[in-house]
Task: structure prediction
Amino acid sequence: MAADAHSPAFRTDRAAAEAEDLALYRQKFQHRLPASLNELQGPTQGLVQLPLHVAWSGMTSYDLDQPRQRMGLYRTVLHEGLREDLTRLNQDLLLQLWPTLRSLVGRSVWEDAFPALAARGRAAA
Result:
């Protein structure tokens, strides 16, 4: 007989599954993260063309002068980008966008690695 959603066994199984998911997510991204946010020296204006390994579906070109496109670019690169893709972002823009981005990406991985992001997240909360 399967445990129902209110049973202690179900909650324990769910918590274990969530912990495992977080561990896999951390493993996926930790080797991709730059050593420092100072490595993020990308543009703050103009058009950015993403490579196919990052933008394999949907938009591939983003206008940083358009707030929604800028947010979409950062969300896409944070989710799909490799280390060299991440370093093409801009540190100041990432810090500016972080209060919103943190709810869209694995914030614990990023905030554990970069205290400046954690501080921005706490300040916005």
In short: The mean pLDDT is 87.
